[in-house]
Amino acid sequence: MEFVSGYRDEFLDFAALLFGWFRKFASERGTGVGGGNGPEGRSRLMEAQVRRLPPDPALWVLHILPNRSVGISLGQGAKQGPGPGLGAARLLGDEPPLCLRDLSPYVSFVSLEDGEEEEDGEEEGTGEEEGELEEEGEQATTSREPTQDAETPGEPEDAEEEAGGEDSSGGDTREDGGEEEIGPEKRRGKRGDAAPLHLACLLLVTDEHGTILGIDLLMGGPQGSGGRATGAEGLAQRAYTLLCHSMACPMGAGDPRRPRQLTVGDPQLHRELESLVPRLGVKLAKAPMRTWGPRPGFTFASLRARACHVCHRHSFEVKLMPCPQCGAVLYCGETCVWADWRRRPDDVSHRFWCPRLAAFMGRAGELAALPFTYTAEVTSEMFNKEAFLASRGLTRGYWTQLSMLLPGPVAPGYPPGNGPPLSLLLSGDPYQLLQGDGPPLMPPVPPDPPRGPFVPELNIQNKQSLKIHVVEAGKEFDLIMVFWELSVLLPHVALELQFVGGALPPENDQQHFTLQRDGSGVSVRPGSGVSARPGSGAKEKGSRRDLQIKISARPYHLLQGPKPDLVIGFNSGFGLKDTWLSSLPRLQSLRVPAFFTESSEYSCVMDEQTMAGATGGGTSPPQPNPFRSPFRLRAADNCMPWYCNAFIFHLVYKPPQGSGTRPAPGPAPPVPAPTVPLVPARRRRGDKRPSRGGRRRR
Hints:
By secondary structure, the chain is of the alpha/beta class.
């Protein structure tokens, strides 16, 4: 698939944006873009350029974010020789990863807190100053040693290389005992021989609305100083350089500009910048910022800089323009336009897709027609999802699944990024987890409720039991308690729901439990693998108001069991997973009603092509799903309307051989040779008497 906007983890797009801007910033800072004789000449030229920029009425904020617990570990796959590296190619290239775990062979995050006790034991018996020097030397070693091994394999390595050259926490503070202290760091990495990189401090420039405008990474700063850089280039000069580049080349949306006023989130840095910031024609706030943001409820915006569909360069590097014919795809210039137009084979070129994409763009108004008071905001192309959730108090429960900034429910010791454990997914009132602290989002009664069942073949109203398979479930598994609504909508049906997919947690494989009404709430009764609540009785078979839940952490074509009544899938993406090439033929052999949703009409067309290639069948014409998400998804390289579960369709199976069709004519049977007809023998008179007697008796 050419466009993966509705299927890729939001964090990966965000990481590609951050490191893409940082690489440009680091290269220009190192080479001295702008000319001039020496650093002072380049600084004066940069200041003159910034002073000529138009003013921005919004307040800008300089954040200082120290880091003492998380390190960056480089995998063996990252060490692939010189150049930008395989990790960078996978993050920004033609085949970008869809999930964060796809980058684990190249880069991962490790905890730096596990070995603190070991470090304390090694430093026992030394003086306070000596211990600080050893700790400082250890961090400098861990931030510089991987550079010699990895030769800039990817984005985190680029950050480390640039910071290692300019941050004075490198060679000046390195002690002889630093080499001996790398051992605990290596043990904590668990990824290879190289010690994990320590990102000591992060400088972040935003405006008062939360739009990120610039970033700088400081590797291996002393933990005792809160991650502040020391030495030849102080933190103030580094922050000043970052401010200049953020104004001349802002990461977020908008043209180059300079703020009228700046506030800083660190008292010491605020004092050091008092003499530098006025050179840019910017007024520094009288006092440093005392809280997390300039106003209550401050959060980072979800607006992202877009990128060219062909070369993947962002809007802060080049000026983007949509295709003049369809207006759906973004390009940086005529070169990329013609490269995409003439792509081979022809069915993947923009020449082939341009008329179809124009038709898809024409349905943007139909998808935005929703019965909510906030429809205009959430369906806008500039929709800021993080600000919307924060302003309405949607900061807990299931709403954390929609946010990249809000921490979801995790158990102690559970690794973040892989979803909450099953015990937490099954706790609490399912409806309580959908509520926020602000006004309700859903209208009490939809003005135009959807009519007609989606699955007419099942005749649900006359069924007593219904077995449903949820195929390739990922995000839906994290919202498992929401499916209790099925038992409310179908109180007369005994429901069994089985989640199937290779993305499910392996530790939950073959688990079985039952959701049942418990007064005004919902309780969990174990089937296998889930502990029962005190006082809950266990029955062999669920009633009609119960919801049976089963989990199979494997691809659908490997599932063994009885045939289901219905198969459903959400945002399936047949062309993005190789397992569908085996699962679709399995569905063809079962011939059960199978309904799927997609996030765009383009994805539905790609699913139809995959179904035809895998089974010879097809799909029904996609229809807008009345229960789609109202939040518009912002795409990086196109302007098409993307919504979670936007369209719905069902599989059309290939007719089985010999059903309703005449067999093909074959060769005529051989004609037997003519023979002399047999003459019956003359019967004797005595032989006829028994038969005559029998007739008389009858």
